[in-house]
Structure to design on (218 residues):
C-alpha cells in the first residue's frame, strides 16, 4: 500500500545566521548530521520522513525558551520532539525548521503524596511496563504506610540513574515491613519480571525505606 501524501508545504529558508546563533548558544548540543535529522524527522505514522534542518538537545526550560526565541527571530518553525512515537505525523518537519529534542528533560519536579499526582518534565517516555511497575511501587508503598505504619511523613523519590529507573519510598512509621508479606510479594515478582530488584529496610520501630531499581529498557 502506498504511503499517504502529507499536505503540500514549501520548506522555509534556514539562514546560516540562525545556525551560527544556535551553535553559539548550545555548542555541541546542536546537530545538522543527516542521521540525527533523519531520526527526528520520522515517527510511527505512515508518512514519509520530513527532516528538520537542525536538532537542538534541550536540558531545561531555559534551553527551550532560548531555542524558540532564536527561531522566532528568523521566522523558522520549531518542532518539539519527545521520543518519536506520534502516529499522525506531528514530528514531521514539513516546512523544515529546528527540532527541539526534549528527551534529556526527564526529572520528576514534584510529588503530591496526598492525591498521588506527579509533575514531570516532558522528556521521552519509558516503556509502559516500566512506568506501570514504578507506579505500583509508589502506590503500594504509600498505601501500606498510610494503612499500617502510623507514619506521619512520607517521601517518594524517582530518578533515572545509569540506565535504571530508581524508585524510593520512605516513611517514619513503625517499621516491620517484610518483602515476603502478601502485599509486597506480588510487587517484588512484578519488578523481578523486568530484571529489576526490590529491597526494603524496615527495622522494628522504623523508619522504612522501599527501594526499587528497574532497567529503563525493559
Amino acid at each position: 500500500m502506498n504511503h499517504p501524501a502529507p499536505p503540500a508545504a514549501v520548506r522555509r529558508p534556514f539562514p546560516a545566521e540562525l545556525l551560527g546563533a544556535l551553535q553559539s548558544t548550545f555548542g555541541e548540543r546542536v546537530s545538522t548530521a543527516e542521521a540525527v535529522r533523519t531520526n527526528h524527522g520520522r515517527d510511527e505514522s505512515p508518512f514519509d520522513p520530513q527532516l528538520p534542518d537542525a536538532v537542538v538537545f534541550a536540558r531545561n526550560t531555559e534551553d527551550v525558551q532560548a531555542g524558540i526565541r532564536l527561531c522566532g527571530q528568523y521566522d523558522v518553525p520549531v518542532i518539539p520532539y519527545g521520543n518519536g512515537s506520534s502516529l499522525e505525523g506531528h514530528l514531521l518537519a514539513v516546512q523544515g525548521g529546528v527540532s527541539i529534542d526534549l528527551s534529556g528533560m526527564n526529572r520528576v519536579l514534584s510529588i503530591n503524596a496526598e492525591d498521588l499526582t506527579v509533575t514531570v518534565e516532558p522528556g521521552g517516555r519509558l516503556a509502559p511496563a516500566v512506568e506501570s511497575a514504578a507506579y505500583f511501587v509508589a502506590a503500594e508503598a504509600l498505601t501500606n504506610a498510610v494503612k499500617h505504619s502510623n507514619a506521619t511523613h512520607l517521601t517518594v523519590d524517582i530518578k533515572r540513574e545509569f540506565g535504571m529507573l530508581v524508585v524510593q519510598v520512605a516513611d517514619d512509621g513503625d517499621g516491620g515491613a517484610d518483602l515476603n508479606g502478601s502485599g509486597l510479594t506480588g510487587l517484588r515478582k512484578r519488578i523481578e519480571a523486568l530484571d529489576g530488584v526490590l529491597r526494603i529496610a524496615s527495622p522494628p520501630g522504623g523508619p522504612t525505606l522501599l527501594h526499587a531499581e528497574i532497567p529503563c529498557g525493559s
Q: What stands out?
A: The chain has two domains: 16-101, 108-215.
